[in-house]
Amino acid sequence: MDVRFDQKVIVVTGASTGIGAAIARGFGEAGGKVVVNYRKSAKEAEDVVASIHKAGGEAISVKADVSKAEEVDQLFQKTIDAYGGLDILVNNAGALMQRTPIEEMPEELWDLLYSVNIKSVFLCSKKAIPLLKQRGKGKIINVSSLAAKTGGGGGSVGYASTKGAIATFTKGLAKELAADRILVNAIAPGIITTPLHELSTPEKLRAQLNAGIPLGREGAPEECAGAVLFLCSNSADYITGETIEVNGGILMD
Question: What family is reported (predicted)?
Answer without folding.
Answer: Belongs to the short-chain dehydrogenases/reductases (SDR) family.
